[in-house]
Every structure is written in structure tokens, then in C-alpha cells.
Amino acid sequence: MRKICVVITARASYSRIKTTLVAIKKHPDLHLQLIVTGSALLEKYGSVVDQIEKDGFEITARLFNILEGNKPLISAKTSGLALLEMPTLFASLKPDLVVTIADRYETIATAVASAMMNIPLVHIQGGEITGNIDDKIRHAVTQLADFHFVASENAKARVLRMRDGGNNVYNTGCPSIDIAAEILKSASLNFNPFVTYGGVGPVFNYENRYLVVMQHPVTTEYNLAQKQITCTSKAIAELGIPTFWFWPNSDSGTEGIAKGLRIFREQNPDCPVHFFKNMESGHFLKLLKNASCLVGNSSVGIRECSFLGVPVVNIGSRQTGRERGNNVIDVNYDSNAIAHAIKIQINRGSYEPDFIYGKGNSGQKIAGLLAEIPITSNNADFYE
Questions:
Q1: DSSP 11-49
Q2: Which pTM value belongs to this model?
Q3: Domain 182-348, what fold?
Q4: 378 Cβ neighbours under 8 A, 6+ residues apart
Q5: Chunked in runs of 10, what are the mean pLDDT values of the chain (384 residues)?
Q6: Cβ(134)–Cβ(157) under 8 Å?
Q7: According to CATH, what is the number of the domain 2-173+360-381?
Q8: Same fold, 2-173+360-381 and 182-348
Q9: Where are the domains of the chain?
């Protein structure tokens, strides 16, 4: 059996790979090894590791490496700590293939360790463009990787150009679309977010309409994070629509967003906004499917929401260059523009689905490729 070592660094990377993990686990010729690291281990960011175990996956190793701070310096050091420890784990686990996901800064440690130890590296979701530091990380991992499972035809063409062609680039679609496809079979909101996930803030009636907000710091604009989140929170407060708001990820600038949100809560105690750290991916997508609009700068608005037909107001530069469906309105950090765009999307309602990132069978495709792609290196030499 091929040993497939998948490294999960954050809540986003888990949702992007979950259906692939299921398919690997079921495949008769594959053995899943699971390393969990980064913010996925921390309660502050929703204890993704607990959800992974709840979903029935056995965690092979945990690598604690996150340093607290609000500067790019901390991100660099956090990646460095992962690079120090990842080779030790690889030497112990002796995987046949290592899988790294997308573009978060922690992925560079996985890619460098795998490449320098001559372990074949699979990169999922390369070839995309977003217009911030993630592009540098993503394209660097593309150059280090041996196999590329991309999410769209444009991404495939981009990787082929970066790698001067080759036969190891496959358009598998995005595994998170698999979950969205399952949601469409039974899309009703059959759980109570307040009861199931707790969170903080007022409890309100969300049966008529509600918004979902997910806004992360932009790593190249980290010093503006508090100002940017204040523009969004001002628009939400002015609209007064019931809102489920999700805590940002661990990128540089997160503390600025956290401070802005604390000020917002203090100044608007009666505003119908409830905050969550995390949700199980199926529940989260059901919450999105039934929302009047998603607001913020998360890639979920570009990927899953395009498939689900959910109206999106995308703010700022974090998703610049990423392929998007007709469901997205782009605005700058201006509270009036944000509020106006939200009103347009609410009045517009649901969109027809776009299939840019696949149709719901990516996990099976990827597992099949992991079992079949040729590995020419000699395993015995990887770990000497």
C-alpha cells in the first residue's frame, strides 16, 4: 500500500481536502498518514483538530509551531519552526507521497522538507492567483512539487507554463466542491447555530434572512487590518440585518481585526451579530446556502458560493485575480459601497451555479491518481 502523508495546517486546508481524505481512507491501495499543524491545532482558531477526529480520521502526528504576533516576522518564524520539525516526522513516517494544500504560508515548510528529502510532493490547488503573499507561496510550492492537482482549467494552463509543460498536471477540481454538491441534496438549515456552536453575541431570529461575514487580514496590507474591518463592521451595523460572523485566520494582521471587532461589539451591543470561531464544513456550507449574502474576502465566496449560487460581496484585494462566477460583486473598503452592494445582492437573490472549480467528484479523482501516478524514486534512499 502506498503511504500518503497529508499535512493540514488550518481550517481552510481541512475543508479543501476532507473528501480526499475519505477517499484515501477507503482506497484499497492507499494508507493515510495525517500530520496536523499550524492553527489547526489551536482552540483560538476553532480547534480544527477536534473536528478532524470527530469526522473519524486518525491523526498520525501533531506539530505545534504557531507563534503569537501580528507581524510578518512571526509568520516567517512559524514557518521556520515547521521546517525544523517536519523532516523528523517524514523520516519517521517514511511516506511514499506527501500532499500539501493550497497557499497558506505554512505550506512552504512542507514543500521544502519534502523536496529536499527527495519525497515526491503532490500540490493541490496550485496555479491560481490572488494578488497577495499567497501567490509567492503557492507558486514556490508549484516549483517544488512533482505532481499538481489543480482546481480549474486556467490554473492548469498556468502551472504548465510555470513548469514548461510536463505530464504531471491534472485538473481534478476542488474537493471542497464535493461537500457543496452533497449539501445541495439536502440544503435546509437543519441545525441551530447558537445551540450547536455557542459563540458570542446576541441570539436573534434568522428565519427570514441573514448575512454571513468572513473577512481575513491581507498579508501585504496587515497594518491596515483594523481600519479595513472597521469599514465592514460599520456597513453591517448600519444595515442591522442578523449576521453570523466568523473569526479570521492566523495571518499577519489578525490582531488588528480582532481589536476592530472588539471595538465594534463594545459600541454596538444590541446589533444582531453573533460571532463563531469555526463550524463543521457541512454545517458551514448549509449556513452559506441559506444566507442572503456572504460578505468579506474569503475564498469560500469565490469557490463554494459560486457552485451553490450564493450572492457574495467580496471586499478588497485578497482575492484579486482568482477566477470567479457571476455571483460576486467586488468593492473596496468603503462602508457605503459595502452596504450598497449587500442591498443589491439581497434584492438579486440566488444565482445559477457555476462549475469553474468542479462538479463534486474531486476527492475520488485525487485518490485514484495518488494510487496510479508513477513514482520513480527509491524509497530506501529518502531517509538516509
A1: HHHHHHHHHHHHHHHH-TTEEEEEEEEGGGG-GGGT-HH
A2: 0.90
A3: Rossmann fold (3.40.50)
A4: none
A5: 96 92 98 96 90 96 88 88 96 97 90 97 94 86 96 95 89 96 93 96 96 94 95 98 94 91 95 96 96 97 97 96 95 98 98 94 97 76 54
A6: no
A7: 3.40.50.2000
A8: yes
A9: 2-173+360-381, 182-348
